[in-house]
Design brief:
One of its GO terms (cellular component) is protein-DNA complex. This protein folds into 2 domains: 118 residues, Rossmann fold (3-Layer(aba) Sandwich), CATH 3.40.50; 95 residues, Orthogonal Bundle (Arc Repressor Mutant, subunit A). Strands 2-1-3-4-5 form a 5-stranded parallel β-sheet, sandwiched between helices. By secondary structure, it is an alpha/beta fold. Helix content is 42%, strand content 21%. It is built from 8 helices and 12 strands. It is globular, with a radius of gyration of 18 Å.
Length: 229
């Protein structure tokens, strides 16, 4: 799905490690994106407020002001997506970033292929917010009407089923853990059993007639991945 030409998308990369910035910048420019850079917190704020990028790749550990502070300030002042980079794998750090408005996170080290997939997912999600309608493969999402179609037939979904399926569609091709699904669909303050994700995945498979799990795949020991052919 082509939202708009990549050359029309501005991405800001913020990290104090020059090698990481250059690695990301080189890869994104090869994909046609316009890439801007910043190496500390104050510079990130200045560039972001002037540029108003479509997406920001933001490291947590920065000189001056950390990524949490930057994320909160930018989310209060401009419309953008934020993918946070962290060397920390603790769930509390991820939850803190998400609570401050981050849209996604990646733990270093990471592959550029996965970063690119997550960037594309965030851009697709923004497109839904602005147009309320999106077609991806055999799926059609009408966010304004809160409806999802599969093979041109409307699916009868509960609110939670709708939110879960939309999240899987927008992130198609990415393996999503139960924890991140819980955080994004049920909310960071959800205190129930994480097996609720399995229950709702089963509901969706039934409604998609996905008996062989060819649409919503289980990645053992990791989570789920929606595959759109």
């Amino acid at each position: 799905m082509d939202i708009k030409g990549n050359e029309e998308i501005n991405i800001l990369v913020v990290d104090d490690e020059e090698s990481i910035v250059e690695f990301i910048k080189m890869g994104l420019e090869a994909e046609g994106y316009r890439v801007y850079t910043a190496y500390d917190g104050e510079e990130a704020i200045t560039v972001a407020m002037e540029l108003r990028p479509h997406l920001i790749i933001l490291d947590i550990m920065l000189p001056g002001r950390n990524g949490y502070e930057i994320c909160r300030e930018l989310k209060e002042n401009i419309e953008t997506s934020v993918i946070m980079l962290t060397a920390k794998g603790d769930i509390d750090d991820r939850v803190k970033g998400l609570n401050l408005g981050a849209d996604d996170y990646m733990i270093k080290p990471f592959s550029f292929k996965e970063l690119l997939a997550r960037i594309n997912a965030r851009l697709r999600n923004n497109y839904i917010c602005k147009s309320t309608k999106l077609n991806i493969g055999k799926f059609a999402i009408d966010d304004g009407a809160h409806e999802i179609y599969f093979e041109n037939k409307i699916l009868q979904l509960s609110p939670t089923e709708y939110n879960l399926l939309k999240y899987l569609i927008v992130n198609n091709g990415l393996v999503l853990s139960k924890n991140i699904i819980l955080e994004k669909v049920w909310g960071c303050d959800f205190e129930g059993d994480e097996n609720i994700v399995e229950v709702y995945v089963r509901y969706l498979r039934d409604k998609l007639c996905d008996k062989e799990h060819e649409i919503i795949k289980t990645v053992r020991g990791v989570g789920y991945k929606l595959v759109i052919n």
